[in-house]
Design a protein that fits this description.
Layout lengths: L1 E7 L2 E7 L2 H15 L6 H6 L3 H37 L5 H13 L4
Helix pairs in contact: 3-4
Length: 108
């Protein structure tokens, strides 16, 4: 709420000023909420052209790949840590290299 300071004689008076803009903004937002039209999901996708469908497919594949990356990294690093723990000091490099080569060639 804004205030208006005016000097009348020697005494400064503080009087509240009505803020009509904020009240009008809230009324406008209520009107917008009431007049919002919704579209069913199946109808939304019915307007897609082939390039939109291709982009949605690429986005879906990318989202699946992003979701699989963390569990896959957990499996890879878990296998490598086990290779470190299972080997003796002289065989550490050989054991880790064997695990890496088996992961690269997909011989799980």
């Amino acid at each position: 709420m804004a205030t208006d300071i005016s000097l009348e004689g020697d005494i400064a008076s503080v009087q509240p000023v009505a803020d009509h803009d904020s009240k009008q903004d809230s009324d406008k937002s209520k009107d917008k909420d009431e007049t919002t039209n919704t579209v069913p999901l199946y109808k939304l996708f019915s307007f897609a052209d082939p390039s939109d469908r291709l982009l949605m497919l690429m986005g879906t594949v990318g989202a699946i790949g992003n979701g699989l990356s963390i569990p896959l990294m957990i499996l890879i690093f878990g296998t490598m840590i086990n290779a470190f723990g299972d080997s003796t000091n002289s065989k550490v490099v050989d054991e880790v290299s064997e695990v890496i080569y088996s992961l690269i060639s997909c011989n799980w």
